[in-house]
Design brief:
Helix content: 10-25%
Number of helices: 8
Shape: globular
Number of strands: 14
Mean pLDDT: 92
Radius of gyration: 22 Å
Structural class: alpha+beta
Largest sheet: 6 strands, mixed
Amino acid sequence: MSEVQWTLETDVIVVGFGASGGVSAVSAYDSGAEVIILEKMSRPGGSSILAGGALKAVHDVEAGVAYLTHTQGGRVDEQRIRTFAEGLYELPDYLQKLAEADGAKIAVRPSQGGAGVYPFPGADTFYTVFVQQIPGFEGYDWSSTGGNLNGQRLIRLLSDNVEKRGIPVHYNSPVKRLVQDGSGAVIGVEAQLEGKPAVIRARKGVILASGGFEFNEKLKKEYLEATPVYSMGNPGNTGDGVLMAQKAGAALWHMWHIHGSYGFKFPDFEPAIRIAPGGVRNDNRKVPWVLVDQAGKRFMNEYHPAPQDTMHRPLQFFDPDIPGYSRIPAYMIFDEEGRKLGRIANPLSAHPDHQYEWSSDNSAEVERGWIGKYDLLRNWPWP
């Protein structure tokens, strides 16, 4: 290959500044590397800033291995499972060490019966740690997190650690291509460095932490079973890292395995909106609705143990008699008393133009026309 004219050199380039990118940058720096972060968007956070900020940990590595072995369905090798479980065991101490940067308070949330979602062996060993408070930090005003600031606190903690170490962060700097040498090894990236073309050398490595592909329609149609699948969160997640790694010869895995719920897509609001319940099911939470398909038939448990993880799967049913996806769209039905129980949706977005606060009793959405109001079910406009 011809000689590359490098614009900039460093040891490690981290592509993307969500939680994984922030941790990667801090860890590489603490291991003695010179590091820079390239972030496509104008702010940090990725999808992690919208999460509940609950970080899973385990009391016992072996019990963690047992649980994770059951959940992965034979798709992950034993060494990766063990390494992951060991990381979960070390996580609370690691988070407490990060808290030294800004005086953050780290809290533990024990869960009755453990924080494992499913009743597999080892579930009882799981518990939750999170960033409960950071002095002087009351949240970012450009990110809609549905009232849960724990994800924002986690990103702030990581940002403070990056800043404390003097790690350069370049925003509005999308990476376009991985640069490889004659043997195929990745030695750098081509990027738009704050609006200017740049070729940056990585003496030790490039870490791709650039998010998923939920805002890339082509990739969704390529890898996901159902269609359409609407997305929420960070519109910067267009699969850039997936495509670059693939072009460099990387193998892909688990591309079908999305983290998703069910929710709403309205013509006059760009992102999708998820149902309100999230996380591990709380049996005290009343869910007043049922879902029915296009023939008016109920087809799923609307609130199983992982409402934000796998609730999309019942909607993926392909009906050969139609043919088509008879549950896309599905219809949510609840009565007037159910409307008053609490908001049915939870808008989340990392984009300042996508913020929306859903009314606590759903009345504003009735007025907006997002929720239809009918005196009798037989007046419902069935297709």
